[in-house]
Amino acid sequence: MIQSLTTKLAKSNLPRHVAIIMDGNGRWARKQGLDRTFGHKNAIESVRAAIEVCGDLDIPYLSLFAFSTENWKRPKSEINFLMRLLSSTIKSEIAELHQKGIRLLVIGDLEKLPASVLKPLKNAIDLTQDNKKATLIIALNYGAQDEIVQAVRKIATDVQDGKLAVSDIGHEIFEQNLYTQDIPSVDLLIRTSGEHRISNFLLWQIAYAELYFTKTLWPDFRKEDFLKALRDYASRERRYGKTGEQIKTES
After folding, report:
1. d(C-alpha 199, C-alpha 202), whole Å
2. Cβ atoms within 10 A of the Cβ of 59, count?
3. Which residues are identified as catalytic?
4. Which residue, 54, 106, 120, 246, could crosslink 59 as a Cys pair with Cβ 3.0–4.6 Å?
């Protein structure tokens, strides 16, 4: 089935940038009578599957929402487990990512992360910075509203310091002050677990993204599920404000 779907998709319109809200780890664990932490641990295989699909289909950008600014409100024991899991996963997976030619970027307010996470993150980013095959973007301690406010502050400071005129401010200037500068806008946003929310993720970057929601919980999300989302995306007509007739004529 996977090979059949991949063959069909190879000739279809594929996204350049896929973003995923990886939701449902806790519910997956509870359904099996396990602690929430087991859901987070088993989610790593789903991350591997998503990276492999992007590699197989030459999708150059994949963004994963790993930890939000709001997630600090969770029980301390769960947060501590997540930080340990992040640290160990980065250390164990980075060699393979590097071998595959994948560049790692991390977006968010990283200074608030513990040193046990920051150190391996920095090492991984430095190791892969020249890789060209694809880019994996991990959102850690990330909130889109905070990102937008931060961008506004940077631009306001440049105007105040005389480095920028108000008339110069446009989409390009704004985007260059976001965490995702030089990264293309999101084409496809996937959210697992059946929830229909954006949850403060890449609000500027998903302005014209196609949204795909699935009831599959993230630890169960495998290549087949990702390929179904891509097939659904390929069947859609992206108009960007134009009419369907205009798009067909231009094609």
Report:
1. 9
2. 22
3. 23, 71
4. 54
